[in-house]
Amino acid sequence: MDTTFTMQHALTDEGPKTDCQKVVELLDVIIDGEATTEDRHYFFKHLETCQDCFQAHDKHQQLKSFLKDNIKRKLVPINLMGSIKTVIHETI
């Protein structure tokens, strides 16, 4: 794995954030289709030059697609939310 990163201008508590760190943080948002236009542009521009991030994105996307296609949602009783709220209020 190449450890030579271009430094990003954003700072964290631990110091400057690398481009790859930012891309990892954006991964789920991009795959879920919830990213801003600016974030999408940044993300895909970075993938053009970083093979490691490209592969990570591809694997993550395949995993999410597999889970979406193979995990079936189960319906829960309509009164479940009310029951949970009642129990929470009783314990407070």
From TrEMBL:
Domain Putative zinc-finger intervals: 20-53
Protein name per its UniProtKB record: Putative zinc-finger domain-containing protein
Source organism per UniProt: Adhaeribacter pallidiroseus
